[in-house]
Write a structure and sequence with these properties.
The chain is an alpha+beta fold. It is elongated, with a radius of gyration of 34 Å. Helices cover about 60% and strands about 10% of the residues. The strands form four sheets. Strands 3-4-2-5 form a four-stranded antiparallel β-sheet.
Length: about 400
């Protein structure tokens, strides 16, 4: 068995554990810092909306790509001295084509820019393609995305509430989803990635992935906390921490398996095909999957434990557990019924292995024995009365 498999078994049994819930202040601080940085990027720099959202004209032409291709075509378009052209966006595609995007122009201005691009590329003007893109289409896409996001969040809240019978689980999952979206969108703002319809599709897709991983962890928490108020061995945070340790290897494996193909698509879309929908979609998926895995391990379970610990029943359970620990002490290890050593907080059915002081407790009285039969001691018994007497 591989070392990772052995570690997964030890984590699931409770032989090895990390106090994820106990260090939740650290994870919350990290997430708050990331969210603040993301919001700062959104307000300070804003999102670089693609031409599909802002509208404009897109040109493509075949050319030999060199180190100064972007600068050369940008200068050629600016040299047309068209006031409405703005700052052109020049990108290369697959080392064989160049793409130029400008603000909306008139037909005469489009022809002027096409001629400048053709001259720079050394090809006839009719070999330069141009396409007018209206901003109204991008606005419709953005509005539909916002509506889809609102409907998705509402349905998620209701479904998780109905499945777990716990509104606090729904609230924790929604906060984790918002955390994932803010950090992903903030990264786009900070780095300056273009936001296209493919980006919107990718962001909506990562919500489903993050939610799936969170629900798996929550399901294990529900299993570990079933009937917990009738016991005094584990607090809700202890049982939640056990659930995170039991599912963390699965979460890591699932994340890596998802990131490998998405990363491959990102490499192909960026360095082979150049900018386009494939790159935009894979980039959003790659960032969102990584952030979603982080939130499902470090944020959502910790939030759920924080919300539940405020309930009177859980506070009474905490007092009972602490009282038991203070009275009996917490042994470093306890023995299960099979004799395996596991941490006391693992949730296993444990038997205290407390040595008995010599002479402090009298041994139970032995039953009187008689030698009989084949030399084996037999318990003494009164003789039966004879029949008829």
């Amino acid at each position: 068995m591989s070392k990772l498999g052995q570690l997964g078994n030890k984590l699931h049994r409770g032989d090895v554990s990390y106090n994820f819930i106990g260090h939740r202040k650290i994870w919350f601080a990290v997430s708050i810092a990331l969210v603040v940085i993301s919001l700062g990027g959104l307000f300070a720099r804003g999102l670089e909306l693609g031409i599909e959202f802002r509208g404009g004209v897109e040109y493509e032409a075949k050319t030999q790509i060199t180190g100064d291709t972007v600068q050369k075509f940008g200068d050629a378009v600016k040299a047309t001295n068209i006031a409405e052209i703005g700052d052109p966006v020049v990108t290369t595609i697959n080392n064989a084509r160049v793409r130029v995007q400008t603000k909306p122009l008139t037909q005469d201005q489009v022809a002027t820019v096409r001629s400048a691009i053709a001259k720079t590329a050394g090809i006839p003007a009719d070999q330069v393609t141009s396409q007018q893109i209206g901003a109204s289409w991008g606005e419709q896409i953005a509005n539909k995305a916002i509506i889809a996001l609102a409907v998705f969040i509402a349905l998620v809240f209701l479904v998780i509430w109905g499945y777990f019978r716990e509104p606090k689980a729904s609230l924790a999952a929604i906060i984790a989803l918002g955390h994932d979206v803010l950090i992903t969108v903030g990264l786009y703002a900070l780095i300056g990635f273009d936001v296209t319809p493919a980006t919107v599709i990718g962001v909506l897709t990562i919500l489903g992935y993050s939610l799936y991983d969170t629900v798996v962890v929550f399901d294990k928490i529900r299993e570990n906390t079933r009937g917990i108020t009738g016991s005094n061995r584990l607090t809700y945070s202890d049982a939640t921490n056990l659930a995170v340790n039991q599912t963390i290897v699965r979460s890591i494996n699932t994340t890596l398996i998802a990131l490998l193909p998405v990363g491959s698509i990102l490499v192909v879309g960026t360095w082979v095909l150049g900018s386009g929908p494939l790159k935009d979609l894979s980039l959003a998926l790659f960032v969102g999957i990584a952030v979603g895995a982080y939130s499902s391990i470090f944020i959502a379970p910790a939030l759920l434990a924080l919300f539940k610990e405020r309930e009177p029943g859980m506070q009474a359970l905490n007092r009972r557990v602490q009282a038991k620990k203070s009275q009996t002490g917490v042994p470093a290890k306890t023995k299960t019924a099979d004799g395996d050593l596991v941490p006391a907080a693992s949730g296993a059915s444990v038997v205290q292995d407390t040595p008995r002081a010599t002479g402090s407790v009298p041994a139970p009285a032995a039953r009187p024995m008689n030698a009989g039969g084949a030399g084996r001691p037999q318990p003494s018994r009164k003789p039966r009365s004879k029949r008829g007497k």
